[in-house]
Amino acid sequence: EGHVADGDAQQISMKALLDPPLELNSDKCSTLSPVLEIKLSNMEIRTPLILEMKISAEINDDVLSKNLVAVRCLRSDMKEGPYAPMALSYCYGGTIKVQLENLEPCMYIAIVAQGQNISYPYTVWDYINKKITVGVYGPKHIHPSFKTVVAVFG
Question: Rounded to two decimals, what is the model's pTM?
Answer without folding.
Answer: 0.80
